[in-house]
From TrEMBL, chain A:
It comes from Mangrovactinospora gilvigrisea. It comes from the Bacteria. InterPro entries: TAT_signal. The keyword Signal applies. Residues 1-28 form the signal peptide. This is Sugar ABC transporter substrate-binding protein. Keywords: Signal.
Length: 546, 311
């Protein structure tokens, strides 16, 4: 159900197992000396998060578990409830900076979904939409900030390396704490229905900086096409060697048949789970070890090098359509998705998609599945917006955060009945071709800046929904979270993004064979001296207090 | 660029000259406006190099740091690696890429049939209009690890490896891409200047028994020498600009060590990592070096008796 998935290209942090990225909470970093925001961590820890008060919607067919397996709906409820009484907008346009994860939406008057959305909101959404190519959102974000024409609503992703976020928020955005903290959020019932774990990313320097963009808590997975793996008996493995051998058997470079997508940081994250590398940090009685420093992580890198040497990765790292190649079932065996819920994404229903359940790399390996931190950032309100208008904008986001089983949700995800979707014989929702090209593409950038809590639902494919539930259950059973999740570190706030970018660049160089394992070890030392040790210290202190 | 050959004393007064040249001056206006708006006014932005600049604080709100940015820049190993890469690519391009249009222009000029010449010209101009995204994608389709040529060679027992992902070949690769894309376009100016070489010179050379090669060497090349020198000087001012989009598109495949140049360094540290001050310092230094190169190349041209681009 999540149409908005964090960028695969621009790293994993949000999906946040934060494989390479260490530490998690608060965003950002600054590339220079200005280390303001010092002391903010202490304030953040005390900030009162919005209360959690989920609204009443349809009962799921299979109950979920907050922060774990998503609730499952086998068909869309026949009579969705209305969660917002009247159009929340004030008739004036609302400018937004956001990103899309699909092809661009149709422009102009042909896009009736957008026209209808504007009508239902009572305000025109004037979205600046960036695509996930090249430097994508970060490049756009930085140029817009530098240009000074800041849109009214700006999405702040936590994993794309935005800098000086605390100072930027201070200078250019409203503090939303008075509107959202504690039970104040109840004025916006759908926002109050967003899970508490998601809100933690919205807190910067002791203030609630924006409305959280929630997502499920289950992180990155290898998505496969079951047909591709049939010759070796399916995509289940007993050890890293078993995986390696099966991949080699499937590899047929002469026919341009490769096995793994060539985005190395994601691959190392997946391998790391099999070897038992920590999710960001390992906590042993209050003492923290970063995943970079562990033997397990090193083993994962070495395994990636071995795979690269054996030609298992697609040979051109700039491959733009890895997911399409996997869908086709002939050219590529696996690519990394941000979440297992990708299995019920509409474009993936037409082919035998599945995920690789993590397995122990060798006897004795402590295999785990990494939880992400349940949010792809937050959406802040520019301080050029009149204070009196803030509640209006929050009401608009309240509409967009409508949960599954509401009229608003049904419209947002599937569009206009009769045009974008139709009821099947047994009353389920089925997207039309129009809906695929209009509703799906237009909702993607909307869902990136606000969406409702995650739920599993595969329109017209209840079997896939059930399978996804089974997969999520297996993953949740071996899941662990980053021990510093929800804790705050000033060093992380100021330098985290820069440090993790450096480390992931180094990681790519090592896996590609341009640098040696010894360079990695030296890099870890530099990482420690440039902020890694400081983060550890700050997190350990925060852990002791928690 | 104005050539005022007339001695100073005999110049008519400014008012008279203005009246005489007003049409020309008026025609210059849009061009001058362009340079003022997009080149000279933005120069003021270079003060960022002396600040710890944050866009949302603005020029006045950002703290002054004196020369700190320059000092820090000098201490960055990756900046020096970018400088070295830039110089290497510049040298390779100067040797391989700069003469290519001259050679092609001579070749085109030697064609007798106007029709063949025109159609070849049209074909060689075309790649210039493709964007780098397309050019790089095409190279990848042919030379990449999953490319056509690579696959063909492998099927015939020749292991070429992945040319697009080999850091040691990167500089040659991007130069060959530049040659493929822009050689044809570069011939325009040379063809024009070849056309202006008086034909009677060729005739008399032929009468004296000079074959085609000798005619090129003794007539054509000397005839277009001023243009070559002028373009060379202008190229020198630009020599540190070795390609931006082209390099960014292929950076992931070979890593930053082999591919980072000053321009991409400025982009990644400034726009992407937000260190505007230090990266502006890097850009400013590049500008100053380019300026110095133009001045000295022009001086050198005067030494050799050419007029260069100005006197």
């Amino acid at each position: 159900m999540s149409t908005a998935s964090p960028s695969r290209r621009t790293l994993l942090a949000a999906t946040g197992a934060a494989a390479a990225a260490v530490g998690l909470p608060a965003l950002s970093a600054c590339g220079g000396s200005a280390a303001s925001g010092s002391g903010g961590a202490a304030k953040s820890a005390k900030t009162k998060l919005p209360v959690y008060a989920p609204g009443k919607t349809a009962t799921p067919d299979i109950a979920g578990q907050l922060g774990g397996v998503d609730p499952v709906y086998l068909r869309y409820p026949a009579n969705p409830v209305k969660s917002v009484a009247s159009a929340p907008g004030d008739g004036k346009p609302i400018s937004v900076l956001t990103e899309t994860w699909t092809t661009p939406m149709p422009s102009g008057s042909s896009n009736q979904y957008l026209a209808e959305l504007n009508k239902r909101l009572g305000s025109t959404l004037d979205m600046t939409v960036t695509q996930d190519v090249g430097d994508g959102y970060l490049g756009k974000f930085n140029s817009i900030i530098a240009g000074g024409q800041i849109p009214e609503l700006v999405w702040f992703p936590p994993n794309q390396g935005l800098q000086k976020v605390p100072q930027l928020l201070q200078a250019k955005f409203h503090d939303l704490t008075p509107y959202l903290s504690g039970s104040a959020v109840k004025k916006y019932p759908n926002l109050a229905g967003l899970p508490t774990y998601s809100w933690k990313t919205s807190v910067i320097d002791g203030k609630i900086a924006g409305v959280t963009v929630t997502q499920g808590h289950l992180g990155q997975v290898y998505v496969v096409n079951a047909d591709f793996w049939k010759p070796v008996g399916g995509a289940t493995f007993t050890s890293a060697d078993d995986f390696f051998n099966k991949c080699k058997e499937l590899l047929d470079a002469k026919r341009k048949k490769y096995v793994l997508e060539p985005f190395y940081p994601n691959a190392v994250h997946m391998f790391g789970e099999w070897y038992g590398a920590p999710n960001g940090w390992r906590n042993e009685g209050g003492k923290l070890t970063a995943n970079y420093e562990t033997d397990e992580y090193l083993a994962a890198i070495e395994f990636a090098v071995k795979c690269r040497q054996a030609n298992l990765f697609w040979p051109d790292v700039n491959v733009a359509d890895a997911s399409t190649k996997v869908q086709g079932g002939q050219q590529l065996g696996a690519y990394v998705e941000a979440q297992p819920s990708a299995l019920v994404a509409t474009p993936n229903l037409s082919w035998p998609a599945d995920v690789i359940i993590p397995f122990p790399a060798h006897a004795g390996a402590k295999v785990h599945f990494d939880l992400n931190y349940g949010s792809i950032g937050f959406t802040a309100i520019s301080n050029q917006v009149d204070k009196a208008r803030i509640p209006t904008l929050l009401n608009v986001m309240n509409y967009l955060a409508a949960p599954f089983g509401t009229e608003e949700h049904l419209f947002l995800h599937f569009g206009i009945e009769g045009r974008d979707w139709a009821r099947t014989k047994d009353g389920d929702v089925k997207s039309t071709a129009q809906g695929q090209s209009e509703a799906v593409t237009t909702y993607s950038p909307v869902g990136t800046f606000t969406q409702g809590p995650s739920a599993t639902y595969a329109p017209g494919a209840p079997a896939r929904a059930k399978h996804t539930y089974q997969v999520e259950k297996q993953l949740a059973a071996m899941a662990w979270s980053n021990p510093v999740n929800g804790l705050y570190s000033d060093t992380y706030t100021n330098k985290g993004a820069e440090l993790s970018t450096t480390m992931s660049t180094l990681l790519v160089d090592v896996v590609a064979g341009r640098k040696k394992i010894s360079d990695w070890k030296a890099g870890v030392k530099t990482w420690r001296s440039q902020g890694g040790d400081a983060m550890r210290h700050e997190y350990e202190q925060a852990l002791a207090k928690a | 660029m104005a050539q005022s050959a007339a001695p100073r004393a005999s110049r008519p007064p400014l008012r008279v000259r203005f009246r005489r040249d007003r049409t020309l001056l008026f025609l210059c206006l849009p061009g001058v406006l362009y340079f003022v708006l997009f080149c000279y006014i933005p120069l003021a932005g270079n003060i960022v190099a002396f600040q710890d600049y944050a866009p949302f604080l603005g020029f006045s709100g950002s703290p002054w740091t004196g020369m700190t940015n320059f000092v820090q820049l000098m201490q960055q190993a990756d900046f020096w690696s970018a400088v070295v890469n830039t110089l290497e690519i510049a040298a390779i391009q100067l040797v391989l890429y700069f003469p290519a249009p001259i050679a092609l222009a001579l070749l085109l000029n030697s064609l007798v049939s106007e029709r063949v010449k025109k159609s070849i010209q049209t074909v060689v101009y075309l790649p210039h209009f493709l964007s780098w995204v397309v050019v790089v994608a095409m190279f990848q389709q042919v030379l990449g690890g999953a490319g056509t040529l690579t696959g063909f060679l492998e099927n015939h027992g020749l292991q070429t490896g992945n040319i697009m992902a080999d850091p040691s070949l990167f500089k040659l690769l991007i130069t060959s891409q530049s040659i493929w894309k822009d050689t044809g376009w570069g011939t325009i100016i040379f063809l024009a200047s070849i056309a202006s070489v008086p034909t009677d010179l060729y005739e008399s050379a032929a009468m004296d028994g000079a074959g085609p090669w000798r005619r090129i060497w003794h007539v054509t090349l000397p005839g277009i020498r001023p243009v070559i020198i002028m373009l060379l000087i202008m190229r020198l001012g630009d020599v540190l600009t070795v390609g931006f989009e082209q390099i960014i598109l292929q950076r992931d495949a070979v890593g930053a060590d082999a591919s980072e140049v000053i321009d991409t360094y400025v982009y990644y540290h400034g726009v992407i990592n937000g260190d505007w001050g230090m990266s502006t310092a890097a850009g400013l230094m590049k500008g100053i070096i380019g300026f110095a190169l133009i001045l000295s190349a022009n001086k050198l041209a005067h030494r050799f008796g050419e007029s260069g681009i100005y006197r």
